[in-house]
Amino acid sequence: MSDVSDSAGSPHWRLHPPLILGANREEVYSRPSAPPAWQPQQRAFPGTDLQAGGTWLGVSETGVVVAVTNRRESLPAEDPRSRGHLCFDTLQHPSASTALDWAQNHLETTRYRACNLLIADIHCAGVVHVAHTIDRRDLGSGHHVLADVDIDDTQSVRVQRARALATQAPATDLSGRQKQLQTILADRDPRAIETERICRRGATAGTVSACVLAMPTSGLTQGHYRFAAGPPDTHPFEDLSTQLRSRMR
User: Fold this and answer.
1) Domain-embedded: residue 64
2) What is the pLDDT of residues 120-154, one digit of tens each?
3) What domain count does the chain have?
């Protein structure tokens, strides 16, 4: 979703409580990356973009979740800073609330190419749209979908399909909800053109990995993390929950 470090624009889903997020990473196939792992210097559990050194999605040791998606519009910028490093900057804040305030008040539109910054924890969530202006939207309880446009965009085919799939007969237990999200992330609607599919497969770029993250209100040490090291329609999800919990406060 393209959540990503640089990636192109992909959907995220949130159900609260607890906080549940599913994300596809879209990227050029040749861009190297490493799977999620604890980075002590960042005090976070992110995947790593090995080209620019940033991340497309990470979880801090205090339970702040940050993800970035590219936006369709492109802003002129000389030597722009990687949006993946913006994720790391945001993960240093102790809560989603303080991170959202910081992003809203201190980001500069000329320093990054256009993107969406998703920030959440078990207490609150919001999106900061970074384009010609800095716009913040706080998210209430319910399902939300983010791609390469505004959050919950009503004109995006893939956003609306993801939202429809997420809201139809949702499972009431965590395990069932995680499996539903994995199915949504793997969706390749045969009626849609390639660029409007949830799981994309282009000639040189497409969906390269996926994750499902859950942060229960019972405590951060009970977090759940499943990761697919390739397109989720062809690659299984590996359970990384033990690794995630090992450093959570």
Assistant:
1) yes
2) 999 999 999 998 899 999 999 889 999 999 999 99
3) 1
